[in-house]
Amino acid sequence: MASSDLKGKKVLVMGLGALGGGVATTKWLVSHGAAVTVTDLRSRKELTLSLKVLGSSAKKIRLALGAHRETDFKNHDLIVVNPAVPRESRFLKVARNAHREIVNDARIFLDRAPNPVIVVTGTRGKTTTTHWIAHFLHGKGRAAFAAGNTPERPLLADLDRLVRRPETPAVLELSSWQLELVGAARKAPDIAIITNLYPDHLNRYRNMEHYALAKANIFKGQNPAQILIFNAQNSWTRFFLRMKPRGRVYFFSTSALPRGTQGVGIRNGEIVFTEGDMQETVAGKRFVKNFLNVWGSHNLENLLASMLGAYFAGMTWAEIVKRTTTLPSIPYRQEMIVRRKKLLVVNDSAGTSPDATIAALTRFRGPGLHLITGGTDKKLEFRTLAKIMTTTTSAPRVFFLEGSATQKLVAELARLGYFKRATPLIFSSLSDILRAIKSSLRAHPSPSGPFTVLFSPGAASFEKFKNEFDRGNQFSRSAKRLF
User: Fold this and answer.
1) Cα–chain-centroid distance for residue 81?
2) Which of 372, 376, 395, 460 is at 20 to 30 A from 205, Cα to Cα?
3) 318-321: Cβ within 8 A, 24+ apart
4) pLDDT tens across 365-393, in order?
5) What is the count of structural domains for the chain?
6) Which residue range forms the structural domain that includes residue 297?
7) pLDDT band at 2, cuts 50/70/90?
């Protein structure tokens, strides 16, 4: 999508939002000469901050707030949708019937960026993998751009700067929502990575297959010269392979790779890269053991995926291994925000599915564990999480944040007899929970190890927070103030 294609073109932005993505998209469109209308269900008052951030661009757009109007979807040449807008929206159906083009920020980015592009998706681990790949690529003495599914770095905020630096690799984290419209992009990712697939967002998708098909758009347009990386141990990888992707397929695995597959795996405690008949030891047992001690077993998959992505982006194995000593910690993903001799506080707000909470419980289990969990349901099942909780937590040390998902989880735990005669500890705010935990810590003697306060919701945040990042920010502020 060239600038000349947009000059004077009537563009409708569906969803300005309050998180920054819609603002960045609107600014970018205005800067390229488009005649922009913004439509949003929220009122001007509710969008005060976003309108303020638009700055001078606000004077150059037409606003249609408080409701969507069918005429706008018929009378504009291009519809740019916020990722939160479901494909089934009746207004998008109106646009399709009027033969209007529908895109999102990810589609615009892939259509326009001349840079090498690495795209990461998956249910878990995509943010860590994205940032670790960018970290590795910085080791080549060049810049690497990481952005995507986060309010801090909207996709289009830096697009023009990237276009002027075509040699700079772009590492993008894209959600299933963002991927829904990229299958028809003019450019497919040079390297595409699917970290894994687990039940999630089933309040948006009809079933797991529907969810997987959205993810599959990441490799839909690839050619045989491009790279596609899968998790060899995830059951949904077979589903993707049956779609016969055209890219060169590699795998990562925390055990030895299956015979006849290419990629990185763990064999005899070492990281081994296999390609054709060639096998190369990338890192030895001591390296793997040290990594596990620092980062936990769940991050081993993220490490292998990011190492493989960086390797195909031009790094040597030696360069990659050297850079692992300075891997960044990712906010709100098992982030240790308070570390003292007798207290560890962990912020896992980005753990928005039961599987994420299971991973966190596996890493931080111990006699001093206090778990904060619960939130908004996404039509997921909590039976497995409830079973894991019966072996990793005790009812007096589990604190629930009220919400629709909490109701389901408490019901599953009650069915298992978890509470015995106790009443579940359900609170209306994170600050109330933290105060209750602080009182509990004072009242009980220290266990053999440190107390651990783990905030891992295993659910979405829509009922009380803007998103999981707002939730994580509020938790960190309150925890640091109290502890």
Assistant:
1) 19
2) 372
3) 319/136, 319/139, 319/140, 320/136, 320/139, 320/282, 321/282, 321/283, 321/287
4) 998 999 999 999 999 999 999 999 999 99
5) 3
6) 106-326
7) very low
